[in-house]
Amino acid sequence: MMLSSCRRGRRHVPGCRKGSVDRGRSILLSNLVDRDPAKWRRRAPNRLTRCIHRTSQSGKLYSNETFARLRAGLAEAGRRQPGCGCKAMHKTIACPRLLRRYDHVVRAGEKCDCIYRVNQGWGCRYKTLRDGRRQITALYLPGELCEPHWLLSGRAELPVMALTRLSITPLPLSEIHRRENGVKDVLGAMMQTLERQAQWIVGLGRKNATERIVELLIDLRMRLGESDGPLEIPLTQQEIADIVGLTPVHVNRVLHRLAEQNRVIQRGRTLLAPASIAGADAH
What we know:
Helices cover about 45% and strands about 15% of the residues. The protein is an alpha+beta fold. It folds into 3 domains: about 1-95, no CATH class; about 95-200, Jelly Rolls (Sandwich); about 205-275, Orthogonal Bundle (Arc Repressor Mutant, subunit A). The protein has a 4-stranded antiparallel β-sheet with strand order 1-8-3-6. It has a 4-stranded antiparallel β-sheet with strand order 2-7-4-5. Strands 9-11-10 form a 3-stranded antiparallel β-sheet. The chain is globular, with a radius of gyration of 22 Å. About 25% of the residues are buried.
């Protein structure tokens, strides 16, 4: 017998009130896909679609695993039941995804049939070594495309996760190919990423600690279009250390030195990068 979604530690289905659906017919996103695929296919068109739609409208968060199961289940339902309103379902799936801090957008090795545009929040791509050390290899800010090279590879080589609460909109690869200037825009974003990676390599290989951190803050201000007021940096010192290839202790020392020179502002755990961050040794 199928139990309610609030039993056995299961996550409640976002957008559906607890106990409002008959227990025998409750929509269990985890159990239903695995235990009864036929029932999943029957219910996906008429009930799960509405549930996802309400979730995207209300702005509630749902787990990455749940979203992956929904996407796979709805795609399977569309293949087996062509006349079940798949257009509405695919339109619903294109709604923004909302992720909590440190939730994964994709993990290494996963196939990617879409590219994500960042609406709000910050994300990153990273590589973890066997001994636990991590290097953040790219940052994704509002308005930017996340991993545009997925257009060519269709596969995530490295994991991508949220550094803050993150809102992203999936852009299906098939839609990009159909859209006018769609491929051109993605290739442009890809070139910007390559140029940024080249500057990153130079900084890690040839610049000292102060130059790396200052260059990072200047780059963030330029990418976010901040020209006057100070920019709040929602990164921890550990995350900054993973970006610039230093230890958190070394990052702390450099930030204190920059604060004494009035080139950064530290308010408790909040780091602000004013326009004066660009000093004589910024480049």
